[in-house]
Amino acid sequence: xxxxxxxxxxxxTGGEPLIQRNTPELCKRFLELGYTVLVETNGSCDIGVISxxxxxxxxxxxxxxxxxxxxxxxxxxxLSHKDELKYVISGKADFDWALKHICENKLQSxxxxxxxxxHCISAQSLADWILEYNAPVRLNVQLHKxxxxxxxxx
Length: 154
Known about the structure:
Layout: E1 9-12, H1 23-32, E2 36-41, E3 55-60, E4 84-89, H2 92-104, E5 111-116, H3 123-133, E6 138-139, H4 143-148
Parallel strand pairs: 1-2, 2-3, 3-4, 4-5, 5-6
């Protein structure tokens, strides 16, 4: 199905792709076919099962998510400079926690994305904090939600 499209970029996401036992093989096959492969994971599974030739986008769960304990800290030791980290920010406490987490774990050399939990804060509020603190991060908004709302499968 993917071969029908002219793209050379494939992103594997949705739920948690690393709980699917065939995801590493799927990634390997796409790499062999010359695709750039991105894998977006919630950080609760070992990213070492995915080839470092993939671009791994790893969520770091902030405290206000209620899932902060699900993140595998060992994933931080497996990052390559192709990989990215994503923090979903629900408020100022998460923002402060994420900045501290980045410093304490010496993650400044990686691409870091801060995404607003749009049920809790606006993209503008998060952008204002990023600018105010000169945070070494990218503002990352879920464009599909801005375009299509909460509709699934887009």
